[in-house]
Amino acid sequence: MRVLVAGASGFVGSRLCPALCEAGHTVVAMTRKPESYRGVGEPVAGDVGDIESLRAALRDCEVAYYLVHSLDRPDFQRHDAQAARNFATAARDAGVGRIIYLGGLGDDDDDLSEHLRSRRQVEALLGEHGVPVLTLRAGIIIGHGGISWEITRQLVENLPAMVTPSWVHTRTQPIALPDVVRYLVGALDLPAEESSSFDIGGPDVLAYVDMMRRVATIEGRLLVVVPVPVLSPQLSSYWLALVTNVDVSTGRSLVDSMTNEVVVRDDRIRRLVPFEPMDYDTAVLHALGERAKEKAQAHR
């Protein structure tokens, strides 16, 4: 099958492209700078802000993966909505049979953050021109280079004692990056006639503070946590920017989302794409191993 990956050089896309090739598919890796692309697949120029470039990139593709979002800008919701509209239009015009989208967990009945509302909006906009959309909704993805995981790791490694806001007690259901990739590849074999969504997650439901404590234990570090309920989301974002490499805009969007419980409510995907996802500790060890391997290669 000929499949396009929008976001091929990103956190998830860079791992998805090799997995798709290993599964026997022809991968078209969409990037704004194909001349500098060094990943797996056939590089093709494409920009979600340019419909004509998308039409050209999607030509002859049967399925398109959409792994694009832009949390690092204040107007990300408007930007992501227009990008999704452009992609939906181009996919229809190119005759694409299905779009597979990686969205976010969260109950629709909850007061969702702007970030999670944007994910839902993109999900709807991708299907507004009739191309079926299969959405996999995930919470925190544990893998080297992922923003949410990096926040967890860097907080633990940089602060042996931390004053924390109330959102650290919100429950989430993290999932290992390799398991996200397995679900994304497996989604190609699911029925394609109409749009559908599936929740994906690992076996552990944890509060953010418990995730940090388990990382500290795995790394053999001391971690003292002092909760302070009056720490506002804005102050939290400045705090994250101070002790991690996450910018204030991205930090604010993520902190707002951390007030929403994001856990799997519907586990149908476990029967349709059957395998045993990694537990949290194993996912952490895998992410730390990837980081160590990258650092070792950089020093050769």
* The CATH homology group name of the domain at 2-139 and 176-200 and 263-275: NAD(P)-binding Rossmann-like Domain
Tell me the strand percentage band: 15-25%
Question: Major beta sheet, specifics?
Answer: 7 strands, parallel
CATH class of the domain at 2-139 and 176-200 and 263-275: Alpha Beta
CATH topology of the domain at 2-139 and 176-200 and 263-275: Rossmann fold
Helix content, binned percent: 40-55%
Class by SSE composition: alpha/beta
Taking pLDDT < 50 over at least 5 consecutive residues as the criterion, the unreliable ranges are none
The helix count comes to 11
Secondary-structure element pattern, one letter each? EHEEHEHEHEEHEEEHEEHEHHHH
Instruction: Based on Cα principal axes, name the global outline.
Output: globular
Radius of gyration, Cα only, in angstroms?
19 Å
What is the arithmetic mean of pLDDT? 89
Q: What's the total number of strands? A: 13
Overall CATH architecture of the domain at 2-139 and 176-200 and 263-275:
3-Layer(aba) Sandwich
Strand order of the largest sheet: 3-2-1-4-5-6-11
* Span of the ends, CA to CA: 38 Å
List keywords for this structure.
17% strand; 300 residues; 11 helices; alpha/beta; two-stranded parallel ribbon
Structure description:
With 300 residues, the chain is an alpha/beta fold. The protein has a domain at 2-139 and 176-200 and 263-275: 3-Layer(aba) Sandwich (Rossmann fold). It contains eleven helices and 13 strands. It has helices spanning 13-22, 51-58, 76-94, 114-126, 147-158, 177-186, 208-219, 233-243, 248-257, 269-272, 280-298; strands spanning 2-6, 26-31, 42-45, 63-66, 98-104, 133-138, 141-142, 161-164, 171-172, 175-176, 196-199, 206-207, 224-227. The strands form four sheets. A seven-stranded parallel beta sheet has the order 3-2-1-4-5-6-11, sandwiched between helices. Strand 1 (2-6), helix 1 (13-22) and strand 2 (26-31) form a beta-alpha-beta unit. Helix 8 (233-243) crosses helix 9 (248-257). The longest helix has 19 residues, at 76-94. The radius of gyration is 19 Å and the shape is globular. The model has no long low-confidence stretch (mean pLDDT 89).
